[in-house]
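Memo to structure team: turn this sequence into structure tokens by end of day. - J.P.
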Amino acid sequence: MAGMRGLGRFKGGLVRRRVVFSGATLIGMIGGFGGTAAGVAEAKTCCDPHLIAMALPGRVPGGSTITGRVVVSCKVDHDTRVVLRSGSKAAVLPGWVTVKRGSAQAVFHGRTTVVASPTRAVLAARLGHTTKSRVLVVEAAGARLSGLALSSARATAGSTGTGTVFLSRPAAAPVTVALAATDPAVHLPHTVRVPAGRRSAHFAFRIGAVPATHNVTVTARLGRTTKTRVLVLEAAGARLSGLALSSARATAGSTGTGTVFLTRPAAAPVTVALAATDPAVHLPRAVRVPAGRRSGHFAFRIGAVPATHNVTVTARLDGTAKEVTLTVSPRSHAALDSVYLDKTRVLGGAPVTGTVRLTGPAAPGGQVVKLFYRGPARMPTTVRVPEGAASATFPINTERVTAEDQVAITASMAGVYRFPFLNVYPPIQVNQILGTWNVTYGSTAQIKIALNYPALTDTVVHLSNEPVNLFPDLPASITIPAGHAHYTVNTRVGRFHGDRSTTVNAWTEGGPTVSQTFYGTC
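Reply from structure team:
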């Protein structure tokens, strides 16, 4: 049989043989059953097999898997269970293993638990009246290297940093982890020591001279386990990485700001040179980035511009240049001043008139104000202010809504923006009728009419009650002033006999009717 040797010829009695399974040596008792056995693989099928061997490794680390094997005297003619048991909690076995029909052996798997010190466990297999046992030594599992971390993924020449190694569990004794880097510019210790009882340890490193930016692999090794991290080394000194302006367009007489960006915080103050291809763009010759900062700001102003054209603004530091394009235009005769709406609160469907106003007369040929909007309305996308005029109107057609909504309008011209808003409401309707439901003869009843929204204009609410004798003086209608959402009607309670009730109805023109029943008590 493959993986088994030492089962030679034997005849009668008990013969002690050494058996090897997958590298694990076992001692089994092989009972003679007559004839010649050239190995289990050549054993004949029998109906009364007995256990002849149990194979196990001699030592297994705690927290790992146990793989064992049982061998019976012959190939079984039906599935046969061999009972397994462990005499220690350090080793856990299944309750049995099944030798399949036509086979003379079966493999089983168990596991060991984590132990603080080497522990002996007696494992046994039983088939019928035959028991085979083995002693398994469960070793205290050593901590393994589980991770490596660096304080930063990037480092510059002359900088320092820290690293941390991690173990899979607290070290039972001090553990030494080897360290290495693929570039000698990374100065780090050869080893780092994890104290007993700890799961991690820290180490420091320093970066030497770096001629150019490149990647370095830092490695931690414990036994056969390695962990790596990539560290990007950058040459000393911050480099210019970007230039930005507050706007891509500017008009004569306007101002703006710019920002220069560095690749990293400046170790010392850094001066970035500035220039423009047109002297009409007045900006400083340089901008200073303070130590510890990654950016610096500057202001610029646009002088006289005869015609619209592009200007290139350049920032330069140590041979690195960044450029942006600025479009400059002559100043218009007038700028956008304001946008006025004749109503700011309307019912959906109502028209509104908007007016754009300039700071002065419009330039020859007129000036166009762009309009953008979002919300339940329709309006033009531009409005032209005629030459010499200072304002122009445009229509806004609101749409019907089922709930309060808003139209957000943006008007822009030559970099100047205005943002008027228009609130759109659904039809004003009676929402509910409130009051004291039980009234008595001769008293005054207070009936409160509530609208769904404050009235935008004076709103007429129609009233009725059936039968009329309970509230004989109830008016046919009331007017709720603009801006109000409630109105209280004081009405006399009329004469009645016995318990009576009346229903008060209230509605606006075209709106639904809301009803409420009042009860008269003697």
